[in-house]
Amino acid sequence: MQPNGGVGRTSGVNRTDVSLTGATRRPASGLAAPRPGSRPARASHDHQEESSTMNDTALFAAMSRGDRDALEVLYDRHAKTLFALAMHLSRDRPRAEDLLHDTFLDLARHAREPGASCATVLRWLVQRLFARGATASR
C-alpha cells in the first residue's frame, strides 16, 4: 500500500500479484506476461485441483467467499487471452501488463462487494479491460 492508501503498481504481472484483499505484491523476478504452468507450490494442491474443474461462475462465487485458489484458477484460465487483448489495445507491453493486473484486481474487488454476481466472468473481464484501456488512452 502506498502512503495515500492507494494500491501500488508493479511493472510485472503474475497471478500472485492479485489477492482477494486488493493488495498487490511486487514479483520477485519482474515476471511480465502470463506463463502457463508456472504455478507456485501450495499446501492446498488438492483444493486447487478441485477448483480447476469448476466453471467460472462457481469460481467467482468461491472468490466472494475468500477462496484465493479460485482467483488463481480464473487467472490461469483467462490471462493469456486478456493479455493479448490488452496488447492489442495498448500496443505497449508495460501498459498491457498494467491493464491485465488492474483488471484482475477489479475482479477481486468486485467479488467482495455485497451481493456481487458475475454470470459470465470472461465477458465481465473483457468489458472491464476495454473500459480501462479506453480510459487510459484518453
Question: Which descriptors apply to this entry?
Answer:
Rna Polymerase Sigma Factor, Chain: A, disordered N terminus, mainly alpha, globular, 5 helices, 138 residues
Indicate the topology.
Blueprint: H1 45-52, H2 56-64, H3 68-90, H4 93-112, H5 121-136
Helix pairs in contact: 1-3, 2-3, 2-4, 3-4, 3-5, 4-5
Could you write a compact summary of the structure shown?
This protein has helices at residues 45-52, 56-64, 68-90, 93-112, 121-136. It has 138 residues and is mainly alpha-helical. The longest helix is centred in the middle third of the chain and has 23 residues, at 68-90.
Structural summary, described in words:
The protein has about 140 residues and is an all-alpha fold. The chain has a domain at about 55-138: RNA polymerase sigma factor, region 2, helix turn helix motif (Rna Polymerase Sigma Factor, Chain: A), CATH 1.10.1740. Helices cover about 55% and strands about 0% of the residues. The chain is built from five helices and no strands. About 30% of the residues are buried.
CATH class of the domain at 56-138: Mainly Alpha
The run of helices and strands is: HHHHH
Number of strands: 0
Overall, the morphology is globular
